[in-house]
Amino acid sequence: MDEFSDFRAPLYEVKANLFKGLAHPVRIRVLELLSAAPEVSVTDMLAETGLEASHLSQHLSVLRRYHLVTGERRALQMFYSLAYPQVAELLAVARQLLHDMLNNTREQLEHSTANLSATAPSVAPR
């Protein structure tokens, strides 16, 4: 059954299925490539990712199953594009969220380091 076809499923389950489609670094990389261009050939994706054709094919199959990409055959070449422009927006939001989280962690570490330095007993030279 299609991951999105059960209309009785709670929305949170449908959302979880969407994130399952995103849950691999290679698939994120492919979606980033597709976010940067209207369409990308499989040949170009192979060159950009360094994957074997069979591995890329498996990941593209998952992305198609989760309705994140669409493919079109032209002669002997396959071209892919994002199924929805919001996928690119989702990746941009994730990038900004990660950036903000990293900045917050860095600020917390700097604050902790400053507090440790301020509270550390000073050692008098002998």
Helix and strand sequence: HHEHHEEH
What is the rounded Rg?
A: 22 Å
Poorly predicted spans? none
Counting helices, strands and paired strands, the structural category is mainly alpha
What global shape is seen?
A: elongated
Largest sheet, in brief, is: 3 strands, antiparallel
* Percent in strands: 5-15%
Query: What is the number of helices?
Result: 5
Characterize the structure shown.
Helix content is 62%, strand content 11%. It has 5 helices and 3 strands, in the order H-H-E-H-H-E-E-H. The protein has a 3-stranded antiparallel β-sheet with strand order 1-3-2. Strand 2 (69-74) and strand 3 (77-82) form a beta hairpin. The chain is elongated and about 80 Å long.
Topology:
Elements: H1 11-22, H2 25-35, E1 40-41, H3 42-49, H4 53-65, E2 69-74, E3 77-82, H5 86-119
Antiparallel strand pairs: 1-3, 2-3
